[in-house]
Structure prediction request, 282 residues.
Amino acid sequence: MQSSSSVQPTDIDGCATKVVDPERVAAVQSRMPPEADLVDTADIFGLLADPRRLSLLLALLEGEMCVCDLAVVSGLSESATSHALRLLRAHRVVSVRRTGRMAYYRLDDAHVRMLLDLAVAHTEHTDAIHPERDEPPLTGR
Amino acid sequence: MQSSSSVQPTDIDGCATKVVDPERVAAVQSRMPPEADLVDTADIFGLLADPRRLSLLLALLEGEMCVCDLAVVSGLSESATSHALRLLRAHRVVSVRRTGRMAYYRLDDAHVRMLLDLAVAHTEHTDAIHPERDEPPLTGR
DNA sequence: TCAACGTATGAACAGTTGAGCAGATATTGA
DNA sequence: TCAATATCTGCTCAACTGTTCATACGTTGA
Prediction:
């Protein structure tokens, strides 16, 4: 809570960049997870960033399911479902159990399960509160 | 194009698609959030699905910050930072407070804050547990 | 053995996304 | 007034993503 005393362009540690609040920056930087963790985490979020994949995973919240049933509940073609599941498998978010020609997938990541639970719970809430869910005008993109 | 709204358990076998476990499918479908919620949620996850954006948001976990400081801690150019913040602003994940020519951003979504907290906590854990963080080769496995 | 079936895969294609660049806007101090 | 500053924006392009199509694989029952 500094009283905007000064914005000094050149009081940093040799860095060419200008910093307004060096203390804050240093503190935040020291708490920032290593790059690899950021990438990892972003990766996981990326897997949840598609409505179809999300519905696949939500379906699996309640137990294992075969590919064709997952295709039905997710609204994807069976091929697309298989592709999506392969992605999730590659990231160890789901695992397979094969029986004959059937493949049963299940959620295999407690972390992701928590994220999903939290997301669902919150969407239900937000649903009532949210006045408008549309993107504001925001020119372009 | 979504028949997800009308979830009728008995209606399924009339469909051309083959279903292995109609009961499961019906149960899951009845619990599946409406399409709009799925899209919304996937959207939010999408915002967290980029390591740079993630570091911006993590920085904001501890309070508001101006664009140039955010650029420093996130490792983005100032232009890229501004672009990213605009995106986040458009989705009401962050909000701005302007003072003169400075713009101070802050986290403005409790939901996202929870997701971030959870993610960070878990990454710290996983860090110790995770044997290998690399993506497994897609071809194998 | 063969055909039907459930699933997996690779290639190709359209749509989306993020970042840089250049220029624009708005605020400040001289 | 002008120049410097802090941030924002439109444009553009390369990289990425998700889907479809065609095809391949392994299993099952006839």
About this structure: Residues 66-68, 78-79, 81-83, 85-86, 98, 100-103 of chain B lie near DNA strand D (CB under 10 Å from a C1'). The mean pLDDT of chain B is 80. Chain B touches chain A through 69 residues (CB under 8 Å). Residues 19 and 25 of chain B are 8 Å apart (CA to CA).
